[in-house]
Amino acid sequence: MTHDPIRFRLTINLMIFFAVVIFGTLVFIYLENRSFIDAFYYVIVTIATVGYGDVHPITTAGKVFAILLIIAGVGTFLGVIANGTEIMLSRREKLILMKKLNMVIGVFFSEVGTKLIRIFVDSDPNSEEIRKGLNITETWTHQDFQNVSEHLKKFQYDIEISKSEFGSLKEFLLMRRDFLVRLLENPSLLEHESFTNLLRAVFHLTEELAYREDPNQLPQSDRRHIAGDMIRAYHLLVQEWVDYMEYLKVNYPYLFSLAMRTNPFDRQASPIVE
């Protein structure tokens, strides 16, 4: 498991900072014979380099310790500020990046994903079960999306070979092959692992079909192999679709409305508003 280096540095600096504050407060209480609040004040204004004003160390030992405290504490204090600022900026940049990536995901579903889901669902002998669970409405809450996501992780996806028209699937994917390649070339996708895995699965399925001159005239063993590739993409595709629907519902209600009117799991779905 990898650690965020910025957060790790911030944690270390905070630990050192609090240790210096506590130790410094106790030392000032002892050397200056002051109350806890005065000693704590000494430490904070020393580390923050803002000066003392009317309260300041009186003894020689207190002044010497104040010098040592500046050396030990100021760097740590500045490190905490710098790391905290870096985390906020990094989080802001990540939010902007994820917003751009969700635009890419939206284009993917418009060009490939929604149609591909319909193809997979029509070939799934258990499609009625998955259709019922994905009749999403605008009343759904975050918990509803979480519940259906957990259910989908356990769902037994399947492809009925006799129902699958590999030829038409090949034609559809090859028409969008260049589009998939361009998406895979986007370096920003590395920030969205689940969508990257989905693209790789769909592109692999495209490549497998591209090598078959007539996918409808394949032995059963090879048809089962292709069906396995379809199931892999099917599983990832449905999960990503659910996540994207929640994103649209929260951020873009008008896009969510269209997505629900073209819901690939709803046989009655229609883009026409009645």
What is shown here, in short?
This protein is mainly alpha-helical and 274 residues long. It is built from ten helices and no strands.
Provide key terms for this protein.
274 residues; mainly alpha; Helix Hairpins; 2 domains; 0% strand
Give the secondary structure arrangement, pairings included.
Elements lengths: L4 H28 L3 H12 L12 H63 L4 H7 L8 H13 L11 H10 L1 H8 L8 H18 L9 H32 L1 H9 L13
Helix pairs in contact: 1-2, 1-3, 2-3, 3-9, 5-9, 6-8, 7-8, 8-9, 9-10
Q: Whole-number radius of gyration? A: 30 Å
**Topology as H/E string?**
HHHHHHHHHH
Overall strand count: 0
Number of helices: 10
Net shape: elongated
Roughly what percent helix?
over 70%
Going by helix content, strand content and strand pairing, the class is: mainly alpha
Q: Strand portion, in percent?
A: under 5%
Mean pLDDT: 85
Largest sheet: none
Distance between the termini: 51 Å
**Low-pLDDT stretches:** none
State the domain count: 2
Report on this model:
With 274 residues, this protein is mostly helical. It has two domains: 5-90, Helix Hairpins; 97-261, no CATH class. Helix content is 73%, strand content 0%. The protein has ten helices and no strands. The chain has helices at 5-32, 36-47, 60-122, 127-133, 142-154, 166-175, 177-184, 193-210, 220-251, 253-261. α7 packs antiparallel against α8 (193-210). The protein is elongated, with a radius of gyration of 30 Å. 24% of the residues are buried.
